[in-house]
Write a structure and sequence with these properties.
Elements lengths: L1 E6 L7 H15 L6 E3 L12 H4 L6 H13 L2 E9 L5 E8 L5 E6 L9 H4 L9 E3 L2 E7 L6 H9 L4 E6 L6 H15 L2 E6 L1 E3 L4 E3 L3 E3 L5 E4 L5 E6 L2 H10 L17
Amino acid sequence: MNVICCQLDTAWEDKSANHDKVRRLLDSARPTKGSLVVLSEMFATGFSMNVAGISDSETRETQNFLARTAADYCVYVLGGVVTTDPSGRGRNECVVWSPEGMEIARYCKMQPFTLGGEAQHYVAGAGPLVFPLQEFNLAPFICYDLRFPEIFRSAVLKGANLYTVIASWPVYREHHWMTLLKARAIENQAYVVGVNRCGKDPLHPHSGRSLIVDPRGEVMADAGNGECTISAELDLQALISYREQFPFLKDIRAEYVRPTAD
């Protein structure tokens, strides 16, 4: 399966401008039919706590854009959106659309970034999600989730062999971002696709460094610091062979993995 990462310098709280950026990048990338296109966390607005101003629940501006984009390019599209929870707080979500423009999966960030005030404005998701996408079993995660290996382990026990991590990760902790993406790949013997934003928001600079990592922890593609796309071909048979050669996952003591809701 071909994976394309779109690394954006996100325009602050400007959905239309960011939608245009995505289309320009995809026009240049020329994705093949059936590719998986991955966009960053809150790609259409930036990592904003202004839930009322950026929520996509009523206008569905960004969700409709993702559906149209998936259908127009005949690809799967995975991107971050903000919706409103019945409690009035936001939901920091990752939504996946099929080449037919149909929603096929929706995940809510399990670990809001407490240090940045996200937990005050956004609810926490109930648990990891694993769903089939082409020949892979995909588990999507969002930014701060990356620091919690137990939820990735829970997903691998549900059959995950491909993780996506969409993020607004600041430059100050770039080394953590890159190291943890590799660690999640190595310990779960899975492909990991990490897509981060680049550029600056009103509070922080972001270095990008979106990565595609193979199950051995080797970097297949690195986006560097600027606005661009990167891509790689993921080989399920190679992953299966590697897991058979080194069957580490069979030794997991599942009773010590914290149970989570579906």
